[in-house]
Structure formats: C-alpha cells, structure tokens
Amino acid sequence: MPTRTAFTKAPVTVTVTGAAGTIGYAALFRVAAGAMLGHDQPVHLRLLELPAALGAAEGIAMELDDCALPQLASVEIFDDPRAAFDGVQQALLIGAKPRTKGMERADLLSANAAVFAEQGKVLGEVAADDVRITVVGNPANTNAAIAARHAPDIPRSRFSALTRLDHNRAIAQLARRAEVPVTAISGVTIWGNHSATQYPDIFHVRAGELSGEALATDRAWLVDDFIPTVAQRGSAIIAARGASSAASAANGTIDHVQDWALGTAGDGWTSAAIVSPGVYGVPEGLVCSFPVRSDGTDWEIVEGLEINDFSRARIDASVAELQAEIAAVDAL
Ligand SMILES: NC(=O)C1=CN([C@@H]2O[C@H](COP(=O)(O)OP(=O)(O)OC[C@H]3O[C@@H](n4cnc5c(N)ncnc54)[C@H](O)[C@@H]3O)[C@@H](O)[C@H]2O)C=CC1
Ligand SMILES: O=C([O-])CC(=O)C(=O)O
Questions:
Q1: Dist CA 242 CA 236 (whole Å)
Q2: Of 257, 232, 245, 27, which is closest to residue 135 (Cα–Cα)?
Q3: Nearest Cα to 25, choosing from 206, 280, 294, 249?
Q4: What pLDDT does 101 receive?
Q5: Which of 44, 194, 204, 256 is the catalytic position?
Q6: How far is CA 72 from CA 86, 87, 193, 319, in A?
Q7: Residue 69 — φ and ψ, nearest 5°?
Q8: Does 137 carry a binding-site annotation?
Q9: Where does ligand 2 bind, in terms of residues with CB under 6 Å?
Q10: How far apart are the first and last CA of the chain?
Q11: DSSP labels for 123-150?
Q12: Which residues make up the binding site for substrate (predicted)?
C-alpha cells in the first residue's frame, strides 16, 4: 500500500464502518489527525460504507485529502467488508441504524444483528493478529457479543463496546454538581448495558475535595437527577437535536481507543464494555461495562471495588437486560 508520511512508525490500519454517517464524519478527521493513536502515529484509513453511501464516502475522502494531514498515510473506500477488514488492526464498527424518537436501543437489535454477525465472521477470517474491535453501533453491547460469537479465532479480549460516552457524560454532570473542573473527577464507573438501565456508580468517586459517598448522601439528587440524566442523555439529545448524539459519540470512541491502545494514565480507571470473565456477579460471556484500565495492550478489569446494596441492585438490573437481549438474538 503506498504511504505518504514521513514518520518512522509503521502506519496502523484503521477501518471505520458507517464512515459517511454522522458519527463517522465527526470521527474521521480527528483519527486522521492523530487524536486517537498519537500524533507520531501514521494511519491507513479504510472507509466501509453501504453501496448507496459510496458517493458520500468519496466526498469525505476528498476532504481528508484537502486537510493535508501528515499522519494520514492513505485513504481507501470499500463496500466489501472482506476487503475493508483485510489486515485491519483497529476496527471501529459504527455503521448501523440509529434509533429515532420513541425507540429504545434494543429496538435496533433485529435490524443490526445480522450486520454484526457478518462483520464478526469476516473479521475472524481476515483481520490482523493484533486486531482490536470497538463496537459503537447500537445496541452496542449485544452487537459486540454477536460479533465475538462469530469470530471464534479472535481472542475475546479484543472485542469491546462503547460506554465511554456514558462515562464522559457522568464526569461532566459530577463536575457541574461539585463545582470542580472535569479534570478533578476520578473513580466513575459505568456498569452494565449502554442503555437506559446502565448504572453510573459514584460510590468510588473523587470530585476535588468531595467524595462520591458524600455526594450520594443526597439520595434525591442521585436517584432522581444524576442517574437518569446520565442514563437517558441519548434520548434527551434525540429529543433536542432530532438526531442521535454524533460528535460526543465520536469523541467517546476516540477516547476509548486511545486509552486502550496507548494505556490509561496513572492509577485511575475508565469504563468500557468488554466480555465478562465472570467477575462482579456478571455471567461469563456477556459484553458488560466495567471499570477498566489498559497497559496499552489489553483492557484489565479493576477488581476488588466494594459494591453496596444500592449499586448491586442496579448492576443486576442492567445485567438482566443484557441477558434478555442475548436471549432475543438467540430467538431471531
Ligand atoms: N455506543 C454509543 O455510545 C453510541 C452509539 N450510537 C450508534 O451508532 C450508530 C451510528 O450512528 P450515526 O452515525 O448517527 O448513524 P447514521 O445513520 O448517520 O450513519 C450510519 C452509517 O452507517 C452506514 N451503514 C449502515 N449499515 C452499514 C453496514 N452494514 N456496513 C457499513 N456501513 C453501514 C450507513 O450507510 C450510514 O452512512 C447507530 O447505531 C447509533 O445508534 C450513537 C451514539 C452513541
Ligand atoms: O441514544 C442513542 O440512540 C444514541 C446513543 O447511543 C447515545 O447517545 O448514547
């Protein structure tokens, strides 16, 4: 593949599905400019789209060219997953139907399940040995579980689904509540499904001088304000914007892959949905959001956090929803 960068590192091959969609458009220019894998890391960008959107993808490729980005080694456009995923190292699976007003994300299951089954199978056949897969298309957790099931030769640890947007939403709400900068917030965890049942846990949070325990003593704020604001933020954005979150979703995707590939800083943690090894009472095999850190290779679940009764009930409810989604897929 021709390369047009002057960097010493070999380019990383990144395939973005749904590249001409709204999240794709918001993500591609930042990925191409080094915001995801580092400013010293060139990338080969592969844009995968449905045939009807190939024209739009061509236009985006022209715009990428016009940025004259030094990190951008090449841009290619595909409508064939096998060609787009051949040798892929970072697969961003964004391409899927978004929900509209009045729908829950799980309503997309039947529309999107087949896409993730097919893409999982093809990834298993042609992706690079070090591939890492980030599912954004909804319902993201279960789509990731479907893709993983269809790629038995890819280690389970290489599959993930995005809950970083929820994590970032929780940080923003906490910073506002505690009147501290977002950089003063640590110890947030999103547990469970990327859905209205997700549980944003603040019991291990530091918010400047305040602890999450102290913030949680105002149960009315926690139960009636904080948790629903975070968990239903996607619906609030659809109601306000008439379309689902795009720039913030692209930003969350970039944060997620950056932490996974380059490592999480310090002794803090972030949230990502990964295949459960059977910890924290989450059955093995479910793609569930956990507190995680990365050494730049694999996500590692932060173990040993105390889970109180308040948290346990909410984690269990979200896990039950994940189990129901998998059962619905099995029935399809
Ligand atoms: N996990 C998360 O935090 C979030 C997930 N989402 C989800 O991300 C997905 C994409 O959202 P948007 O970009 O807003 O939607 P969009 O409708 O603007 O774009 C989706 C794009 O994917 C393409 N596409 C559909 N099926 C494809 C396939 N099989 N292969 C390749 N491309 C395909 C379409 O042609 C379209 O260009 C939706 O499922 C949405 O619900 C959205 C926000 C946050
Ligand atoms: O709510 C939606 O459908 C889009 C999404 O996943 C989010 O914004 O979290």
A1: 10
A2: 257
A3: 249
A4: 87
A5: 194
A6: 19, 17, 34, 40
A7: -80, 130
A8: yes
A9: 98-99, 105, 138, 165, 234-235, 237-238, 244-245, 249
A10: 40
A11: HHHHS-TT-EEEE-SSSHHHHHHHHHHT
A12: 99, 105, 138, 169
- Residue 136 assigned to a binding site: yes
Regions of the chain short of the pLDDT cut 50: none
Max Cα-Cα span within the chain: 59
Pairing of β 210-211 and β 206-207: antiparallel
Please, are residues 182 and 175 in contact by the beta-carbon 8 Å criterion?
A: yes
pTM of the model: 0.97
* Separation in Å, CA 129 to CA 8, 39, 89, 262, 330: 22, 24, 8, 18, 28
- CATH 3.40.50.720 residue ranges for the chain: 12-161
Per DSSP, what are the bridge partners of residue 211? Answer: 206
Specify the CATH number of the domain 12-161: 3.40.50.720
Token pair recorded at residue 155: 């280690």
For ligand 1, atom 20, the nearest C-alpha belongs to 21
Residue 208 φ/ψ region, left for φ over 0, alpha for ψ in the -120 to 50 degree band, beta for the rest: left
Q: Which of 99, 229, 244 most suits a substitution to test ligand 2, by most atoms within 8 Å of the C-beta? A: 244
Residue 50 CB–ligand 1 contact under 6 Å: yes
Of 34, 274, 126, 116, residue with least CA distance to 12: 34
Q: Give residue 263's pLDDT.
A: 97
- Multiple choice CATH, 164-331, 3.10.129.10, 3.10.620.30, 3.90.110.10, 3.50.50.60: 3.90.110.10
Range list for CATH 3.90.110.10 in the chain? 164-331
> Distance between alpha carbon 59 and the CA centroid of its chain, in Å?
26
| 280 conformational bin, left if phi > 0, alpha if psi -120 to 50, beta if neither | left
Could you tell me the distance, in angstroms and rounded to a whole number, from the CA of residue 22 to the centre of ligand 1?
Answer: 8
